[in-house]
Design brief:
Elements: E1 2-11, E2 14-20, H1 22-27, E3 33-37, E4 44-53, E5 58-64, H2 68-74, E6 81-82, E7 84-89, E8 100-106, H3 110-122, E9 126-133, H4 142-147, E10 151-156, E11 163-164, H5 167-176, E12 183-187, H6 190-200, E13 207-210, E14 226-229, E15 232-235, H7 236-239, E16 242-244, H8 250-257, H9 261-275
Parallel strand pairs: 8-9, 8-12, 9-10, 10-11, 12-13
Antiparallel strand pairs: 1-2, 1-6, 2-5, 3-4, 3-7, 4-5, 13-16, 14-15
Helix pairs in contact: 2-9, 5-6
Length: 278
């Protein structure tokens, strides 16, 4: 059992949790994830670790409530326990002094890009961070990301805060102004990452994306998380989760992510109805 030491609502459907997991906290590096199981009858889901505190023995996750398991997780509070955690999993982000790096985060993906931006800054890079959300109320980790960036640009789809438009448009503006960019890291919804890669491809700017396809065992045995990168089948759990965005088949990725949407919706609806006694 792993005890929840902190629960904080960041926005309407986005939750931060600190969970006691000393072994994982000691070994976790930027870009890695864990797999958790809420209870014995629950499913195993992958979630990226936003932070860790080896001294306190805790890991931090930030997740959006989109289905039954994340809803179950969001129903827990500090002092409650999660059945088990497995991690750290996946390859950590390649961190070195590239020069000027741009970290692009969209939606809950900001929680994934933040530790990467921090690690890149600590490695001596000049870090420009571009973070965005649909509205101001849904924006997360603005202050934290700003502290680890040399420049922070915020965008909202509806124009309620910062730049009115998409993070990809902000990035395009930097490129159009001939700002030298040595590498881009982009994490967020699949359409956002695809568009960012379309923006950087003509300039041949190396662009790294983090993929979160369907996972089951997270050891490379089941093959559920397979993605196509450069025409080859790769497994996100052991070969990733980060890949060269210019090589990712985003159309196939999006298609695979939609495979079980009807079943996921059915399970989520049944869970919500059960909560309300219907």
């Amino acid at each position: 059992m792993n005890k929840i030491t902190l629960r904080r609502q960041l926005s309407e459907n986005v939750v931060r949790m600190d969970i006691l997991a000393p072994e994982i906290a000691r070994r976790r590096r930027a870009g890695q994830f864990l797999v958790l199981k809420v209870h014995e009858q629950g499913e195993r889901i992958p979630l990226t670790m936003v932070d860790s505190d080896p001294a306190a023995g805790t890991v931090t996750i930030i997740y959006q409530v989109v289905g039954k398991t994340t809803a179950l997780l969001a129903g827990l509070d500090a002092g409650d326990t999660i059945l088990d955690l497995q991690g750290p999993l996946g390859n950590p982000t390649e961190i070195e002094n590239f020069g000027h790096v741009v970290c692009v985060g969209g939606g809950v993906g900001v929680g994934v890009i933040y530790p990467i931006a921090r690690a890149l800054k600590e490695a001596g890079n000049h870090v420009t961070s571009i973070i965005g959300s649909r509205t101001k109320d849904l924006l997360i980790l603005e202050e934290e990301t700003g502290k680890v960036s040399d420049r922070l640009i915020v965008a909202t789809d509806d124009g309620s805060y910062g730049f009115h438009g998409f993070v990809s448009q902000v990035l395009q503006g930097l490129i159009d102004r001939k700002d030298p960019i040595d590498r881009v890291f982009a994490i967020g919804p699949v359409p956002m990452m695809r568009v960012v890669c379309d923006v950087t491809r003509p300039c041949a700017i190396p662009t790294i994306v983090s993929l979160n396809p369907i996972m089951v065992d997270a050891t490379g045995m089941c093959g559920a998380c397979r993605v196509s990168v450069g025409g080859q089948t790769r497994f996100a759990c052991v070969d990733g989760p980060e890949f060269d965005g210019h090589q990712v088949d985003f159309k196939l990725l999006a298609s695979r992510l939609r495979m079980y949407c009807p079943q996921e919706e059915q399970a989520y609806t049944a869970h919500r109805c059960g909560q309300h006694g219907n």
